[in-house]
Specification:
The chain is α/β, with parallel strands linked by helices. It has one domain (about 5-330): Peptidase S8/S53 domain (Rossmann fold). The protein has helices at about 25-45, 60-70, 95-110, 195-200, 245-260, 275-280, 285-290, 320-330; strands at about 5-10, 50-55, 80, 85, 115-120, 135, 145-155, 160-165, 210-215, 220-225, 235-240, 290, 320. Strands 3, 5, 7, 8 and 9 form a five-stranded mixed sheet that branches. It has a two-stranded parallel ribbon with strand order 1-2. Strands 4-6 form a two-stranded antiparallel ribbon.
Length: about 350
């Protein structure tokens, strides 16, 4: 693809997972997610150093320990998490202890100047429940939550338009959903967290991931190379979508912004990365730094939320015009300037 060779380090702080674990079939699924995350973080920030931390399994405390390992060992100034659990499952006991463990790890990350990103989920606002439920860790107010869109471009690659990613509506599903529905962006009002920064914009009385949006539809997907299949004939390029595609790419945008900011993290004593995004809302730069997604909803076979002008629950502030956004975040004018593919990681 003409990209620089990646600078990639892999850590397994509690031991690398085997081919199979007690979670039958999970290693292959997570290997695909890992391939997506690493390859598209590299595609967006091709000079960035990538440190991949692999948990031993997909239990909450194992994932939390992996995050804390990245923080303790200063492995980067942006951190992407393409996983989540519905708040509806976090009902007490051990789950609450794991949430407290995760939130403390995130607070440690922010204190260390690390910007956090997570995906909002792939099965609408309700994910099969009778009422909307936000996804954690995207719902944590220390994390920038990334929702999903259908992104359309012109033949020369220039931006054309976006709608909320939701394949349950054939009228909005790209190309008539020729291969059937694959999902819809998450995004729901949290039952766990307040978020004064966002509430001043959203008008809601609780935190609501998403904060921002990014292309997520399988029909407008990205290409990911898989090379781990047991049968070599199954290896090759695959179409990938989901909000887990947006989280590593937004993290890479954060790395570009830090590089443009003379290597200094935008998560600092003046606030987190996401707080600075909300600081753009309501200013003249908002119209040039973000694509406001106003069409669609995230009702995936259940209740959900509509897109609207300005902030909305499915797509947050919208998707980025990266060059303009980075320029604004680093103190320039969004009408001029350029991004730097620097050594952020």
């Amino acid at each position: 693809m003409g990209l620089n060779d990646p600078v990639l380090t892999i850590s397994c702080p509690t031991g690398c997972p085997g081919t199979m674990t007690a979670h039958d079939g999970q290693p292959d699924g997570w290997a695909g997610e890992t391939s997506l995350d690493v390859q598209w973080a590299h595609a967006i920030a091709p000079d960035a150093q990538i440190n991949l931390v692999v948990a031993g399994n997909n239990y909450g405390n194992s994932l939390n320990n992996a995050v804390q390992y990245a923080v303790d060992h200063d492995l980067g100034d942006v951190l992407s998490m393409s996983y989540g659990s519905d708040e509806a499952y976090i009902s007490g006991g051990g789950n609450n202890l794991q949430l407290e463990q995760a939130h403390q790890a995130f607070q440690n990350a922010v204190n260390a100047g690390i910007s956090l990103f997570a995906s909002s989920g792939d099965y609408g606002a309700s994910d099969g429940f009778s009422s909307p439920t936000a996804s954690y860790p995207a719902s944590d107010p220390l994390v920038t939550a990334v929702g999903g869109t259908n992104l359309f471009t012109k033949n020369n690659g220039a931006y054309d338009s976006e709608t909320v990613w939701n394949d349950s509506d054939p009228a909005l599903c790209p190309f008539g959903c020729a291969y059937g529905p694959s999902g819809a962006t998450g995004g729901a009002v949290s039952t766990l967290f307040d978020d004064p920064t966002q509430e001043a914009v959203s008008g809601l009385d609780k935190r609501s991931p998403s904060d921002v949006a990014y292309n997520a539809s399988v029909y407008t997907s990205v290409l990911v190379y898989l090379g781990f299949n047991a049968n070599p004939d199954d290896n090759g390029f695959y179409f990938f979508g989901g909000t887990s595609s947006g989280s590593p790419q937004w993290a890479a945008i954060g790395a570009l912004a830090n590089a443009q900011n003379r290597g200094a993290s935008l998560t600092d004593s003046d606030g987190t990365f996401r707080q600075k995004l909300y600081g753009i809302y309501g200013t003249p730069d908002y119209a040039t730094d973000f694509h406001d997604v106003t069409v669609g909803n995230n009702r995936w076979f259940g209740p959900g939320y509509d897109a609207k002008p300005g902030y909305d629950v499915p797509t947050g502030l919208g998707s980025p015009d990266v060059q303009n956004l980075v320029t604004t975040l680093t103190g320039g004018s969004s009408s001029t300037g350029s991004t730097s593919h620097g050594k952020g990681h």
